[in-house]
Amino acid sequence: MIIMSSFSKRKDVRLNKALQRLCCFVLVFLVLAFSNLPKAQAYNFNGFVLSNPTNISYSISSTVGGYISGMSNFVEIWSGFCSEVSFAQQAWTGTENIGIYGNLNLSNGTYAICAHANNNRHVITLFNDYTQATSVEQHETIVHEVGHALGSAHCQPAQESKSVMRANDFNNKPYPLSDDRAGISALYGY
Ligand SMILES: [Zn+2]
Description:
Elements: H1 2-40, E1 56-60, H2 71-81, E2 87-89, E3 98-102, E4 112-118, E5 121-126, H3 128-132, H4 135-150, H5 178-188
Parallel strand pairs: 1-2, 1-3, 3-5
Antiparallel strand pairs: 4-5
The structure holds zinc ion (ZN).
The site of zinc ion has 3 residues, from helix 4.
């Protein structure tokens, strides 16, 4: 009787462990399922993908005038937050992966745009509103436009506090935020 009792106790222990495993499995499944929900509402891509993300050539045209000072920091800041990308500045040739150009006298209600010729050629143009912005806004504008050149589109509105790729206004954080880093990792991660 004692032996039987001991057996049944062991059985109980096994059952409990099996139940625990099942619960763990269900819990892991639920965590995975729910962690996928915010992802569906996160970063967006614009369809362009650089073929050489670890050696992205860029240049800043003299047409940006006095704003050129320190601008390269806010191009290359992407590589400080995203190990998947790195940059090499060069003199303007018109063929670099990213060219930054100034049309600073044109008032069109826009700080800047990024035009895409193909996967590997993107031209950022700064307009008059850029010259009216605060220096932090100017820096955030450069980070944002380079984000377009890297392949990021505007984020979902719900992610605006976590992304430099917000369609309007500023976070006053001139660097890639968590949603941006997740996007670059998804696009270029190895
Ligand atoms: Zn934009």
